[in-house]
Amino acid sequence: MAKYPDKVDLYDDRGRVFASKVPVEALSPLRNPAMQKIISYVKQCVTVNLEGIEKALATGEVGGKWCIIRGRSLKLDLVKNAESIADSLKSCLQVTKDDDTEVKVLKGGKHLLVKVPAKRLDAGVEYTTGFTATAAALCCTIVENFKVNLWDADLVHAAVWGRYPQTMEPLGGNVSSLLSVPQQNEGMGYALRNVPCAHIALITKKNAMNAAALSAILEQAAMFEMGDAIGNFERLHLLGLAYQGLNANNLVYDIVKENSKTGTLGDVVVSTVKRAIADGVIKPLEKKPSGYTAYTTDDLNKWNAYAAAGLLAGTMITCGSARSMQHCPSVFIYFNDLIERETGLPGVDFGRVAGTGVEMAFFSHSIYGGGNPAVFHGNHIVTRHSKGFTIPCVAAAVALDAGTVIYTPEKISGVVGETLSEVPELREPLRYVNEAAVSIHGGI
């Protein structure tokens, strides 16, 4: 039986209705099979840059840029033999013949997409199994298939693993995972938040709605993992995920469409408030002598969800019209400033998004100037403060960018984003999450 009374209508990324009156709990990472599959794929799927390994071996440049071992080289036709490498790698990784191990050859043999069997992850406690098992198995495969002698095997290891374990992460390695090494996580439960927006944008083929959805799923699943979406706070995060990330009741799409031609950020605020009034989420509290009307709500969690949906719509309108990602910190600050002044109610995430915007503007636009929005993630010291409501907007902004930054998403993400876009559930999360929600909602 459903814990919460909330029911929503599900829509796709084109604003088409998918299903009606679905319990919001069908969109929970604890219940939705597609979300659980997405989280599992994030742990299981690893990318291999065979072309990179071949080049590293041929030049001796292993362990990072300009880290060249003079007099050491090994010429192996890895790309040409990608199919046989894939077969041997799969055989090495398999636990049983019928398990879920997969190795796909992509880009004419330049890249491999590896899905490590779930049984390997189940046998341990760390998500790093996907990376370590693939890297180790790949070393074995290359050494055995190409009959590499004892004196050159170390070069193969360096080309695959990079400078690890001398460095904390596999610096210069050619096996990559969406998830960073645990030492880079800011605390318990932060692993799923440590995925740069560049990866998200490329995985979803720069579809802004799907980028926001995938980011929101990872962010809000992390809230459950770190203990923030428990007890009285669970509904806050469920509604935020539904309305902001998954376009429940077509709220994000409607607001974007309404303001698509001439709308400004202020217009988006007005649209958001009007929709909240029309849907009975907020109501007038008091009219001041000046004519200003203050509003109140009987459901602060739902108001936060509506405001979060408006924030995403505002990001899409602002960054989409400029075709540039750099405006998102301004949106985080001024959307919340305007909506608080317009209603007298708290902004998104009770001020944490506005605060995040101030710090993000400083880091990316002011005296620091450290990086464009594509490098940010929910684990970043600048953007980790908001509990799941900021990064989906950044991911959407990166998806809408038309190449306005020096360090492009393609340069930042590289093989990872391009290769993982081959996984349908990661590429089109809205579709698969909606289908899964419909399949289980009768039993909630």
Span of the ends, CA to CA:
5 Å
Backbone shape: elongated
The CATH architecture term of the largest domain is: Up-down Bundle
In terms of structural class, how would the helical and strand content be classed? alpha+beta
| Rg calculated over all Cα atoms | 23 Å
What is the CATH first-level class name of the largest domain? Mainly Alpha
CATH superfamily of the largest domain: Methyl-coenzyme M reductase, alpha/beta subunit, C-terminal
Secondary structure tally: strands = 8
Kindly identify the CATH topology of the largest domain. Answer: Methyl-coenzyme M Reductase, Chain B, domain 2
> What is the average of the pLDDT values?
94
Could you describe the largest sheet, including whether it forms a barrel?
Answer: 4 strands, antiparallel
Give keywords:
alpha+beta; two-stranded antiparallel ribbon; Alpha-Beta Plaits; 9% strand; 48% helix; 8 strands; Methyl-coenzyme M Reductase, Chain B, domain 2; elongated; 2 domains; 444 residues
